[in-house]
Amino acid sequence: MGEASEGFRQLRCGFPLPNPPPYRGRGFCFLGSGMTLTDAIARLPKAELHIHIEGSLEPELMFALAKRNNVRLRYPDVEALRAAYAFTNLQDFLDLYYQGMSVLLTEADFYDLAMAYFRKVAGQNVRYVEFFFDPQGHTARGVAFETVINGLTRAQADAAAQFGIQSRMIMCILRHLDEADALRTLDQALPYKDKIAGIGLDSSEVGHPPSKFKRVFRRARDAGFLLVAHAGEEGPPSYVWEAIDVLGVDRVDHGNRSLEDPALVQRLAKDRMALTVCPLSNLRLCGVKRMEEHPLRRMLDAGLFVTLNSDDPAYFGGYMNENFAGVGSALSLSAAELRQIARNGFAASFMPEAEKAKALAAFDRGV
Ligand code: HPA
Ligand code: ZN
After folding, report:
1. How close is the Cα of 285 to the center of ligand 1, in Å?
2. What pTM value is reported for the model?
3. Span 29-347 CATH architecture
């Protein structure tokens, strides 16, 4: 077992984040190539398709923004906050995630948040990003929809110019809120149709099946948005069926529990439906007890179209490289498998066909 895997053993279901995180720039020799797993992953061009931008808010930036905006946090310092990152399920995490957002008030805050993420992943050879944002988490606190969009779009432009990272944004509907709130939020998005590529569904899954938002997603599709939904993270396979058949999603976020239903697995494979899998998130939220039990290997064996992503990197102990390394070493993925999964990120993206063909050709040329 390699050093990367040893490090990730510290990232356990139900335990606080170690400080500093266990990812180090070294590792074991990978398949006799002379390259470490860590180096091989670092060199892969990557596309991230499942990242909640508010979940990239690192404790240090949270405290800096709290100071700038005179917001009082419940924790005295960064160390105390990190010590609270000991989640046993999705709701545990969401409770802190929504508290963390309280420091985001101005356009500059959203800009700084997104630029910090882009800067971080630029150093991990991430070339393309589709990120989620949760406007209802902000408008409910009196922050204007436009403030959020303006800060994020300004960061997208600067990330393209400074880091060469292209990106699109996906607006998520909070599924614990009601349909009327979702419809109002969709209406707010319509004037920004040119800036928002898709509509997604996130927050507390169990008890809030995709069908609750059937009419919202129909309207979003009619308005020309692409569609995604979190399904099968904690919820049953029936939620994945609903995401596909009732909402008509173009990708499924997570989808882990699909494996409990062989007919669903067959359907996902037949439709070449992309799954945005997030290993460190699954570990930290106790969807899996140990990384060695992660369903990714079974997904690959079933011929599913999987991508790897970070979900909420500031809360789960790692960005893209750490997710590739954590699951790659725990499941002994080969160099070819890791490369194929990285390529899938571009292939499953919402790039228009010509842009995607160019990105895939560049990936295949190794540039
Ligand atoms: N799952 C569901 N909703 C979320 C998540 C997640 O991991 N992160 C932010 N909102
Ligand atoms: Zn997510």
Report:
1. 10
2. 0.96
3. Alpha-Beta Barrel (3.20)
